[in-house]
Amino acid sequence: MKRLVLATTLLLATTNSWANERIISAGSAITELINAMGAQNQVVAVDATSRSMVSNDIPKLGYHRALSAESLIALTPTRILGSEEMGPKTTLDMVKQAGIEIDIVNSGETVTDLLKRIDTISRITGKESEAVNLKQKVNQQVANIKANNQSVKQPIRVLFLSIHEGRPATVGGNNTTADTVIRLAGAVNPAAAQIESYKPISTEAMVEMQPDVIMLSSRTYNSIGQADGLLEKMPLLAATPAGAKKAVVVIDGTALIGGLGLKSLSEAERLNQVFYP
Questions:
Q1: Tens digits of per-residue pLDDT, 223-249?
Q2: Contact yes or no for 110/260 (Cβ under 8 A)
Q3: What pairing do the DSSP bridges indicate for beta strands 213-217 and 170-172?
Q4: In Å, how far from its chain's centre is CA 214?
Q5: Which UniProt keywords apply (predicted)?
Q6: 2-141 is classed in which CATH architecture?
Q7: Rounded CA gap, 31 and 24, in Å?
Q8: Of 259, 251, 197, 216, nearest to 31 (Cα)?
Q9: CATH architecture of 154-275
Q10: Number of CB atoms found within 10 A of residue 96's CB
Q11: Domains of the chain by residue range
Q12: Which of 46, 61, 103, 262 would you label with 188, given CA atoms 20 to 30 Å apart?
């Protein structure tokens, strides 16, 4: 009987500790997992990349790479969850000095990384049983995507470009979420054999890769004026199959932030249908 009472007391104490958590989620790939496991009631604020994932009454802070210590501390969180991209370091140091826990969650680009991230967040939020179900769904979704690709005889070549005003265009090479999404969607990333991570390269080098399709984030696509704007900005791309056909596809930018996530898998599934209708 004493053991039962002790076990019940410990369970209630643990449950109350999770109920008292006040989490700031700094990254859409983290916020989507918190929501998917039903722990959104523990969230008191999110960063700008997560604004579409929470209700209007949840405060939205700055971009996860440029957070303000004063804004974070003022919300009296018990902990802040973010990826390796979260910062700056000076902000994180000030937050730690205020007695707030900082949890750095992996931002890897593989399915294995995503499954590990689910486990990490489930332990922090007390949602281990929900994590089991979520991981089953992820594995089933990946299996479905791969099954769809079995009928693809000639994979198309898809190049991801990121364009920011005043800076050279970058491409997504190997070990990037963009590359994983491209491969899951049944295509080939011609940059993966030559480049690691996201790197700026010349337009001439892009032309040599001869992509069939160019993939842009929704932000880039809208800011440059769609396919015509891309060719106006980078006319040499007209010498590629993608440029000649104005074959440009758009990916939701949140699917590329903080590592491979649930949104990344959904976009891979959607793009598979776009690439092979």
A1: 888 899 999 999 999 999 999 999 999
A2: yes
A3: unpaired
A4: 20
A5: Receptor, Signal
A6: 3-Layer(aba) Sandwich (3.40)
A7: 9
A8: 259
A9: 3-Layer(aba) Sandwich (3.40)
A10: 13
A11: 2-141, 154-275
A12: 262
